[in-house]
Amino acid sequence: MATPQQRQPGTPVPLPNRAINWIDERFPLSSTWRAHISEYYAPKNFNFWYMFGSLALLVLVIQIVTGIFLVMHYKPDANLAFASVEYIMRDVPWGWLVRYMHSTGASAFFVVVYLHMLKSLLYGSYRKPRELLWLFGVGIFLCLMAEAFFGYLLPWGQMSFWGAQVIVNLFGAIPFIGPDLSLWIRGDYVVSDATLNRFFAFHVIAIPLVLLGLVAAHIVALHEVGSNNPDGIEIKAKKDANGVPLDGIPFHPYYTVHDIFGVSIFLIVFSAVIFFAPEMGGYFLEYNNFIPADPLKTPPHIAPVWYFTPFYSILRATTTQFMYALAVGTLAYVALIVLKSRLSALWKMIALVGGVVAVIAMFVFDPKFWGVVLMGVSVLILAGMPWFDHSPARSIRYRPTWHKYVYALFGIAFVILGYLGILPPTTVGTLVSQICTFIYFGFFLLMPWWSTMGRFKPVPDRVTFEPH
């Protein structure tokens, strides 16, 4: 198509061009497309790990669209909620498909986000200058957890009801404000119609608005600093005379095609789950949730959905005996900071006083409270990654080989915590959970030291890339 400069005077302008020009005079459509798509230069060595960000955006759209259709028929009333879900499943045309897309989408969202975060851990995507990008991502993860928790109550099945009862009651363990906080969250002295209504409001309106804002901020921050790559090299450091990165290629059409391929594979797997195993053996939809909520009948085993179970295991691992090991571990960590860190004397003194106060508090407050604290910290500690990692190399490719085993140990501990969180508590299971809890927190808290140890491979000046 001829550009305006090439077009001869008097030549009629095609209708699509006139429409785009009319919009551009009133809204930055073409400039936005160029800045964020066609002239956004991404590293040319992306691999399959870099599909999961686009897949997360796709699942977000699926959840919003299916959620809108579900809200059309759902009744946020304790007497009608379960029946309205059954009505959607049995009487609304294609309602069963929309409901299963939404329930499967919730689990798919966490699968994709966990893999997206794993990619960031492996390739150091949280390192300077992407700290704020990472913090937005952690905020998105927290919103997803809140969204999933509030939405889990809405079917008003047995596991929904009792799961919400257990989780909300945990806030009661917080000293001084706990009982009032639990009452405020429930809106009543027990999980009831008031709880269902406020959870519905949070799930449908409040959390999605915050989530969409964080997603927009995440994308804007990404395009401001540029994408990381498997080599962990800044492609903006090497540019041609036109200011184009030498190791960059336009996102469109190269990575749009790349992502479309990933979307195709994802939709095949997603569809297979929806049509053949939407409950996924009870992991995506628990059997007890097909039974109406009954406040007078407690299920034999109450457990959250699989994507919460690693953190739930950390909560359950916090027993009275565990507090002694935690106190010893805290004192040892404070000693490590005082003796082996490069912090100033003031910060070392603060760490020493804080550690001693924390150990004293461990024997003053109930272990249940500390379980809630550790469960919360196990998520929030992700926000500290940009400041924990002091490695000379961003990417795992150029770190010592044994660093891979540290990451593998962390991943195995996380998976074990998730699996044990599904099962009823046992003596052996609790012991294993406690060991894995120490591994989980040790990975982050000891990172300032172990991330600098070993022989690092030389990082190349340009990205390494082999055409397919």
Short summary:
The protein is mainly alpha-helical and 468 residues long. It is built from 18 helices and 2 strands.
List strands and helices in order, with pairings.
Blueprint: H1 15-24, H2 29-38, E1 41-43, H3 52-71, H4 81-90, H5 95-123, H6 131-153, H7 158-170, H8 178-186, H9 193-225, E2 248-250, H10 251-276, H11 309-317, H12 320-340, H13 345-362, H14 367-380, H15 385-388, H16 401-422, H17 427-445, H18 447-450
Antiparallel strand pairs: 1-2
Helix pairs in contact: 3-5, 3-10, 4-5, 5-10, 6-7, 6-9, 11-14, 11-16, 11-17, 12-13, 16-17
Please, could you describe this protein's structure?
- Strands 1-2 form a two-stranded antiparallel sheet.
- It contains 18 helices and two strands.
- It has helices spanning 15-24, 29-38, 52-71, 81-90, 95-123, 131-153, 158-170, 178-186, 193-225, 251-276, 309-317, 320-340, 345-362, 367-380, 385-388, 401-422, 427-445, 447-450; strands spanning 41-43, 248-250.
- The chain is an all-alpha fold and 468 residues long.
- 30% of the residues are buried.
- Helix fraction bin: 55-70%
Low-confidence stretches: none
State mean pLDDT (0 to 100 scale).
92
**Cα distance, first to last residue?**
31 Å
Helix run count: 18
Strand count: 2
Which range does the strand content fall in? under 5%
Radius of gyration: 25 Å
Structural class: mainly alpha
Task: Tell me which oligomeric state these chains represent.
Answer: single chain
